[in-house]
Amino acid sequence: MTTPRPTHAPAAPAEPTRPHTTTEPTATTGPTDWPLWEVFVRSRRGLSHTHAGSLHAPDAQMALRNARDLYTRRSEGVSLWVVPSTQITASSPDEKDTFFEPAGDKPYRHPTFYEIPEGVHHL
Amino acid sequence: MTTIAPEDTGQEALFDATIAADERIEPRDWMPDDYRASLVRQIAQHAHSEIIGMQPEANWITRAPSLRRKAILMAKVQDEAGHGLYLYSAAETLGTGRDELLDKLHTGRQKYSSIFNYPTLTWADVGAIGWLVDGAAITNQVPLCRCSYGPYARAMVRICKEESFHQRQGYELLLTLSRGTETQHAMAQDAIDRWWWPSLMMFGPPDDESAHSAQSMAWKIKRHSNDELRQRFVDICVPQAETLGLTLPDPDLRWNEERGHWDFGPIDWTEFREVLKGNGPCNDERIGRRRRAHQEGAWVREAAAAHAAKHPAHPPHAGTDQEEAAR
């Protein structure tokens, strides 16, 4: 599973809040760095949309068109979602232990937890 | 970027354990600063190579000998643009913005592969690039699909899938020329003569002179050494050249029974270093063209941004499934 990057992540700050650290501005960089969008592709009917990657675009319509050109050049999709990266909220990797801990000690949620005698079928 | 001192939290131990277990590091995981810097350097160079790499081949689009070849070449060059964008997006997950990456390319502070500083003199060069340059790239890239950094590995999976057509179209093109008229055959041979050695240089300096190799391999960013991959490429190419009916320009090329590999002659690393330093045949042309394209596209970026600002609430025509159902 791919991971969209959230806005509050220190490792991947989102576009609008990203500190601009370019040391020497040059003529090649314009003031119009477009926002970042996350792209989700449904590869065929019956499957969920899956995160494919990201791209820059000035607005949602352009993001969709760019996503089509970038992520479905070989008919990889029948449906596309684009989401501003700043709109994604993600769990923090630091809380990985405590946040997901409640599920850790509940093996009885899995069918393999139960012992069934040999010869019992359809169970 | 605020990095908490790893000894306080055991984060470095967690990072090391993740690498040791052959699992992937994801963007928001703690990682050593050098790991991050190493990845940014490598992914950026890779992305820049895809973008600059569009130029030598695009040079022949208007003069492709048939509509079939033209459509193929356009699709290939479009793919290179796509690959550059996948890679920029992977680099951005490390906290380096797109504009910063482009700026560093335009000002020469980040490199691209030295191979793209050679000119494409004839139509056969399109074939030689596909077969040799993309072939070398694939040999390099396949192991990167298992790179320890998740977003880079995922981008490489996508790229490798798409690259295989690039290599095959080049091989087919050369085969057609090789089996054509005498002049066409000679043109194909000339292209291979010029592209063979620079393609071998694409794997980077020999292992004992490679600045970043050892650390990159310890971090499982790289899985094989430069020389190992170079040898693999030579072994693959020799029989392929034979089928083409063309020769590789190396008098020292011979099968080594003992090693089970093809021996090949010495590489001119002086040439490699000169091209890397900026003294290749096309360095100025490539970077000049890239800067110009970026500058000339400024008004388009500005217009699109202005349009977006004017229509902030411009609704997309369909939302998610749930939103659709709620309407």
Strand content of chain A: 15-25%
Ends of chain B: how far apart?
A: 42 Å
* Model regions low in confidence, pLDDT < 50 over at least 5 residues of chain B: none
Number of strands of chain A: 3
Largest sheet of chain A: 3 strands, antiparallel
Protein name (chain A): Ring-1,2-phenylacetyl-CoA epoxidase subunit PaaB
Region (Disordered) (chain A): 1-34
Biased composition (Low complexity) (chain A): 1-32
InterPro entries (chain A): PaaB, PaaB_sf
Kindly describe this structure.
The complex is a heterodimer of chains A (123) and B (327). With 123 residues, chain A is α+β, with helices and mostly antiparallel strands. Chain A contains two helices and three strands, in the order ββαβα. Chain A has helices spanning 60-71, 96-100; strands spanning 36-42, 49-56, 79-84. Chain A has a three-stranded antiparallel β-sheet, covered by helices on one side. In chain A, a hairpin with a 6-residue loop joins strand 1 and strand 2. The longest helix of chain A has 12 residues, at 60-71. Chain A starts with 35 loop residues before the first strand and ends in a 23-residue tail after the last helix. Mean pLDDT of chain A is 78; it is low at 6-31. By secondary structure, chain B is mainly α. Chain B starts with 5 loop residues before the first helix and ends with a helix. Chain B is 64% helix and 2% strand. The mean pLDDT of chain B is 92. In chain B, helix 7 runs parallel beside helix 9 (182-201) and helix 7 runs antiparallel to helix 11 (226-244). Chain B has a two-stranded antiparallel ribbon. The longest helix of chain B has 29 residues, at 150-178. Chain B has helices at 6-9, 11-20, 33-52, 54-58, 67-92, 98-106, 124-141, 150-178, 182-201, 213-218, 226-244, 269-279, 283-296, 298-310, 321-326, and strands spanning 254-256, 261-263.
